[in-house]
Amino acid sequence: MNFISKFSIIISFFCLWLCSFVSPENQLFIGFVFILSFGILHGSNDIFVLKKILLKNENFSFFKILLLYVLFILCCILLFYYFPSLILLLFILFSGYHFGEQQLIYLNNKVESSTSLFLQSYQTLYGLLILFLLFEFHNKEVISVISDIAKISLHPELITYSLYTIVFLFSVFSIVILKKHLKYKDFLIKELFYLLVFSIIFKVASLIWGFTIYFVIWHSLPSIMNQVSFLYGDFSFNNFLKYFKTALPYWLISLFGLGLFYFFSNELKLFNSLFFSFLAAITFPHVLVIYNMIRKFKYTK
User: For residues 223 and 217, what is the distance between their CA atoms, to the nearest angstrom?
Assistant: First the structure.
């Protein structure tokens, strides 16, 4: 277990301890603050990451990349408005893959045929397992949110049985990997331990507080470190400052857009729908950018 993982566990349980002194209303506020800060920040440099990926392609200038990226986001928002149930399902699947890819990034350059459907499916199952653990411990709230944004009513047992199915498939895939690559036994045991940590966090914390702990500490911060290394050669405080300076304008634009959503929404439910449509819209291109970045980035730690 490396220093980052140990640090993440300590900070996670500190935040868990801290929630006993913070009211649910303040947890909601603080959670959104962190999601809108580090959470959105970790996707604010997508344009520059994509620019480096396409560095040798003369057909893509910076402004063309920016234009295509913005158009992609606008299309996602429109699709979410007209097909909320479908886009919500895709959002969960894409998020599951994205979380699993980041969590199991080590395997991308270690397991044979790292771009294979098998590994991508395994990473998706891992990410979905994280999400559905959160959903299961807060199923009433999750069902209420889904009802608000997608206008559909789900039965709590659907979440429970989905979780059981994911656990079964994840177990099968893990056994297959162990049979082919026994040397990764310690790595997989460590990841199972992390899943136990996430389960404790999601069980004890509120929905937003638990998601914030995972999303910021376990996903966004490691992703930022990987992006800084990809863009500037290695991770250091000075390189992080460069990353932050280039991301700042796009981060502020994102917050301004959310502010407009809040200003023009007449009620909280409408804002929730707009917020999740915005979140889904920026998630889809971000997942694709990081997917391509990881295939060029050699992660060895």
Answer: 10
Give 267's pLDDT tier (boundaries 50, 70, 90): low
The band of 1, judged by pLDDT with boundaries at 50, 70 and 90, is: low
Q: Please state, in angstroms and rounded to a whole number, the distance separating the CA atoms of residues 190 and 8.
A: 14
Helices (H), the chain: 3-18, 24-34, 40-41, 46-53, 62-82, 84-103, 117-137, 139-150, 156-180, 185-204, 207-212, 221-232, 237-264, 268-294
- Res. 239: pLDDT tops 90: yes
Residue 103 and residue 106: Cα distance in Å, rounded? 8
**pTM across the whole model:** 0.88
pLDDT-based confidence at residue 148 (cuts at 50, 70, 90): confident
Q: How far apart are CA 177 and CA 199, in angstroms?
A: 23
> Are 216 and 10 within 8 A, CB to CB?
no
**Which tokens is 297 given?**
């980035």
- Here the tokens at position 247 are 């991301």
Rounded Cα gap, residues 234 and 284, in angstroms: 26
CA dist 225 and 297 (Å) reads: 12
Residue 154's region, left for phi above 0, alpha for psi from -120 to 50, else beta, is beta
End-to-end CA distance of the chain: 10
Q: Is 151 left (phi over 0), alpha (psi -120 to 50) or beta?
A: left
How far apart, in whole angstroms, are the C-alpha atoms of residue 260 and residue 263? Answer: 5
More confident residue, 7 or 59: 7
**Contact yes or no for 85/152 (Cβ under 8 A):** yes
Q: How far apart, in Å, are the Cα atoms of 78 and each of 72, 81, 82, 86, 277? A: 10, 5, 6, 12, 9
